[in-house]
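Sync notes, pocket subgroup
Present: LS, DG
LS reminded everyone that the earlier model was apo-only. Rerun requested with flavin mononucleotide included. Inputs:
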Amino acid sequence: MNPLDLLLSRRSISPAALGEPGPGDADIETMVAAALRAPDHGGLRPWRFAIIRGEARARLGDVFAEAVRTRDPTWTEALLERERGRPLRSPLVIACGVRVRAEHKIPEFEQLLAAGAGAMNLLNAAHALGYGAMWVTGPNAYDPAVAAALGFHAPDRLVGFVYVGTPPEDMAAAERPVPSAHMAEWTVPLSAAAAAA
Ligand SMILES: Cc1cc2nc3c(=O)[nH]c(=O)nc-3n(C[C@H](O)[C@H](O)[C@H](O)COP(=O)(O)O)c2cc1C
């Protein structure tokens, strides 16, 4: 596919709709290589990815359930079981983390943006390889116990989980806003009121 058509056709696909097969080693390496093409102020190379597949997904589910139980001991066993099942929905889960350099001259905000840009490249590469994918966060992604279980200790953190698998054949094109609603020619400084409009 032409690269622009590829960018213009990417859409997220719910983890529950992503089936086997998931990407093998070579495709995973290609996706991560694409992530490492993201811009990165200061050459900090903050991207770190934990590749979770096969049986390891069930262990990640246990980590999720334990984290939820610790945050809120009133959760029922049925709700905890739902947490355990989350990573099992897709063949592959990639936990996207960022190695944060605290107090670095490159602001942490920019380090997080670089990590986010890496995750975006991961999504586009998955699409280019014919897989479906979706970037998901939620409370578990922001729980330091979950991050630590995946090898990310503060100030390092997770920016999300990218679920990857084979998409259904009959996926409809996703609606998108028109570009003109999201852009405007800028020529002179705007008043605060006009800028907020
Ligand atoms: C940082 C980030 C976190 C997200 N977390 C979730 C999430 O936890 N649950 C969810 O349903 N969608 C989440 N999304 C949105 C989906 O990844 C996806 O973008 C959305 O379903 C719209 O689909 P689209 O990518 O085709 O526009 C998140 C997106 C981003 C960028």
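DG: Residues 11-12, 134-138, 160, 174 surround flavin mononucleotide (CB under 6 Å).
LS: The chain has one domain: 3-172.
Action: DG to write up.
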